[in-house]
């Protein structure tokens, strides 16, 4: 993409060093922070696909690992840290704070894209940063794990679930009922949890791009 600024980001949070990839298209009007979960990372091909679609739509992206390399190794053995929503949410908030202080991104309104348990972390972070997050999208997420924080989320929230991902559909519908602000749920027909079916991930990317483009641009214009 002509005029795109990109680079590696390293955030030091206490003893933890988190790494990410920042891409800022020329004339970007918002930025989307990706919150991965359930053993995933910034290298997730699904999230990278969505990120590219957002970049092509004029939005900057930050894909950041929420766990350190050592923590990822531990999580591979125990699957414990991926469900530590408080830890993950704190790191999402820290990354968002960094975006607000970084000279290249401080002017951009922020959106969150959460997948799996990362969706819960994004929602908890948004509940604690009211007014700082302009929109949220969850892909195959576990928003139910955000618990009571759901009722404090003010940012417009889109939940995307695969039509064949039945247990997660019910979890999303339950979470949807607790969200108090602008909200929408989209069921992608024929898709399973990872949206690997032909056309499924393309639909996720389109829905996410439309949601963020509408809300991040509108929020910027109203600021």
Molecular structure report:
The protein is α/β, with parallel strands linked by helices. It has a single domain (5-222), classed as Alpha/Beta hydrolase fold, catalytic domain (Rossmann fold), CATH 3.40.50.1820. Helices cover 39% and strands 24% of the residues. It has six helices and eight strands. The protein has helices spanning 45-56, 69-78, 85-101, 117-128, 166-178, 200-222; strands spanning 5-13, 16-24, 31-35, 60-64, 110-115, 133-139, 157-162, 183-188. It has an eight-stranded mixed beta sheet, sandwiched between helices. The two termini are 28 Å apart. 47% of the residues are buried. The model is unreliable at 218-223 (pLDDT under 50).
Question: Could you give a short description of this structure?
Answer:
The chain is an alpha/beta fold. It has six helices and eight strands, in the order E-E-E-H-E-H-H-E-H-E-E-H-E-H. Strand 3, helix 1 and strand 4 form a beta-alpha-beta unit.
